[in-house]
């Protein structure tokens, strides 16, 4: 009996290991089946992000909560599958992307209690941008110089929507001059671009501090996007001697230490 229980335990362990390996191949693999699966997941993510962006407009609809809970279920299943596929659960759990998704999941599971934190859901856009799927496709097509631009643009858009959601949640009141979400978006864009028309202002010390943080963060992200757009394109390849990361695409030697480099061609990546 003990031998049979031992064999059953081994068989169950092998099945779990097989499932974990299959999930890992689907989530991080590069074969055709894995790529199709990853694009399917990314497509669902894009629909979810569109739902998050439109939530302030849709939240008064009758079926909003049902869709909200359906999105929570999808995100929970995705998180559980990714955790199962991870080689080390502890290392996976420490990733910022996982914490962002957990925060988003909590706001979805308690939409009425945590309504004031609903604007954090748009962080899912940043989480999606951390996947290599989109950037790998650009690199394969020879557009790797647009990766930095894309990442900087996603960071800026995410920041824009997070600040807009916070401003709408914290300051939109009857008679405040900010009657809806579009007004909050208008204020955020005007502040980030330092245009400052002054027709909408945030009241009190908290409003002034929010405006200051918005301008500082917004300008920083705009500068980062401008750098990615206009600076000469460089490839990421760590020098084996001095660890310099950015080099000219046709560099033969490291400009910092003179080490001979072997930068792969774009078609070889």
The count of strands amounts to 2
Looking at the structure, what is the overall shape?
A: flat
| Count of individual domains | 3
Helix content: 55-70%
* Structural class based on helices, strands and sheet pairing: mainly alpha
- The fraction of residues in strands falls at under 5%
Element-by-element helix/strand order: HHHHHHHHHHEE
What is the distance, rounded to the nearest whole angstrom, between the alpha carbons of the first and last residues? Answer: 54 Å
Q: Tell me the number of helical segments per DSSP (H or I, 4 or more residues long).
A: 10
The description of the largest β-sheet is: 2 strands, antiparallel
Average pLDDT = 76
- Spatial sequence of strands, sheet with the most strands: 1-2
* Rg: 23 Å
Keywords: Ion channel, Ion transport, Transport
Protein name: Potassium channel family protein
Organism: Antarcticirhabdus aurantiaca
How would you describe what is shown here?
There is one protein chain. The protein is mainly alpha-helical and 269 residues long. The protein folds into 3 domains: 1-124, no CATH class; 131-233, Helix Hairpins, CATH 1.10.287; 234-269. It contains 10 helices and 2 strands. It has helices at residues 2-28, 32-58, 64-85, 89-93, 96-109, 123-129, 132-140, 147-171, 181-192, 204-230; strands at 235-236, 246-247. The longest helix has 27 residues, at 2-28. Keywords: Ion channel, Ion transport, Transport.
């Amino acid at each position: 009996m003990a031998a049979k229980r031992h064999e059953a335990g081994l068989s169950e362990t092998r099945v779990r290991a097989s499932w974990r390996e299959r999930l890992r191949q689907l989530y991080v693999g590069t074969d055709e089946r894995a790529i199709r699966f990853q694009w399917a997941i990314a497509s669902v993510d894009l629909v979810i992000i569109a739902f998050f962006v439109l939530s302030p407009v849709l939240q008064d609809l009758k079926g909003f909560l049902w869709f909200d809970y359906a999105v929570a279920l999808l995100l929970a299943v995705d998180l559980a599958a990714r955790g199962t596929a991870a080689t080390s659960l502890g290392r996976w759990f420490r990733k910022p992307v996982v914490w962002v998704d957990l925060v988003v999941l909590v706001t979805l599971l308690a939409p009425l209690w945590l309504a004031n934190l609903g604007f954090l859901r748009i962080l899912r856009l940043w989480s999606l941008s951390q996947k290599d799927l989109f950037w790998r496709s650009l690199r394969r097509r020879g557009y790797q110089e647009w990766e930095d631009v894309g990442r900087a643009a996603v960071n800026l858009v995410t920041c824009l929507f997070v600040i807009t959601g916070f401003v709408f949640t914290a300051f939109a009141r009857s008679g405040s001059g900010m009657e809806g979400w579009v007004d909050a978006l208008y204020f955020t864009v005007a502040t980030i671009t330092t245009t400052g028309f002054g027709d909408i202002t945030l009241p009190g010390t908290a409003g002034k501090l929010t405006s200051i943080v918005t301008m500082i963060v917004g300008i920083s992200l705009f500068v980062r996007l401008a750098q990615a757009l206009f600076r000469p394109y460089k490839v990421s390849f760590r020098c084996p001697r001095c660890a310099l990361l950015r080099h000219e695409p046709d560099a033969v030697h490291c400009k910092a230490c003179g080490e001979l480099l072997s930068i792969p061609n774009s078609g070889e990546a």
